[in-house]
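User: Hello, can you help with two protein structures?

Assistant: Certainly.
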Amino acid sequence: MSFSLVGKTAIVTGASTGIGLAIGKLFADAGANVMFVDSDEQALKQELGDQSDDSNIRYFVGDMRERLCVANLLSATIDAFDEIDILVNGARDVMMTDALDSSDESVAQLFEQNVLTSLRLAQHVANRMIRQKEEAGYEGHSAGTIINLSSIAARRTHPDLLAYSVASAALDQVTRSLALALAPHQIRVNSIAFGSVMSASVRATLKDNKELRTEVEDYTPLGRIAAPTELAETALFLASEASSFMTGEVITLDGGRTLLDSVSEPVY
């Protein structure tokens, strides 16, 4: 089964650096038309260069929390490539939380960015995919696919990551609920829950903290931090026909980290 995306059009958010950028580039290499989306125009231009009409790469600058930006993104993608077949919700934030501070707004902020923004974009894209299917009289195995980027924080508990953990768990449930709702339309929805991947933010965090990097690697059975391209390859599998009978799944990509019991000595 081929991982080719020739003839497909993908939207990838959070695509100016790190994981989103790696996914977008791999999709483009696999033959897809790709709309890279981010709020950082300078970073997009630096990574992708000038846009040209004959390229399979475009970029869109905007804040997807704004509903008008979502509508403009879909219009820009249709104008450039005529259709939308793949959505990767890669834009996500990580914030530390004071779990005992009632004025801490991190839960609301991360729920808006990591959950509601992804849900709204998925809904708009799914409706477009449904119209495309109806107009084309499509009867194939997959009318489209949506991929959410989540985290193993949804299943692990850390007092300083309350907001991120709650948002990640909610996004996993969004994945399952949308998968069920969209299955009759042959639109697949899956999620990648990852552990430590060398994203731009992780790289910055670990740059001057060798002890933290060693700790993360020690708590990962495979003994290392993943490269963004490794997550991108999983996304490519989910976007391709190789996963045509898979929907509603949360795939764990963490080097075995969630297999560990943090208690050093068993007491049961």
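That covers the first. Now for the second protein you mentioned:
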Amino acid sequence: MTEQRHGAYYLPDGVPQPAPTPDGMDAPYWEATRRHELMVQHCGACDRFQWEPEWICGACQSFDLDWKEVPGRGTVFAWERVWHPVHPALNEGVPYLVVLVELPEAGNIRMVGNLLGDPHQEVRIGAEVSAVFEDHEEDGYTIVQWELVKAS
């Protein structure tokens, strides 16, 4: 089960809000995040997952694409501690951590996101992470962030 954050957002005010593409291709992803589910595209012809959403399968060129829910758990494939803000609203928010997360139960596709917690924390390749859904009720969207899974 993935955790939901309440109260303050990880991203500061002023950062442009994400928006579905005008063609609606990624609408199932955004609708799923609002329900705190992680959905990715899946090809019915070759049984492969893909990310980012496309109109055609990148592996077999089939148009037989649908969306499947996948567990919100993965591993850190790569990471970066960002010191130079990419948007003026982030000037006071550096450093922050960005991770490339590999989803083993979705054919090892990779998704980019922020890593929550101390921006100076140790991060290692292969560390297990879980999705955290950050609701922006007033703007009508939910974004996926990541956090390290604590060893039990």
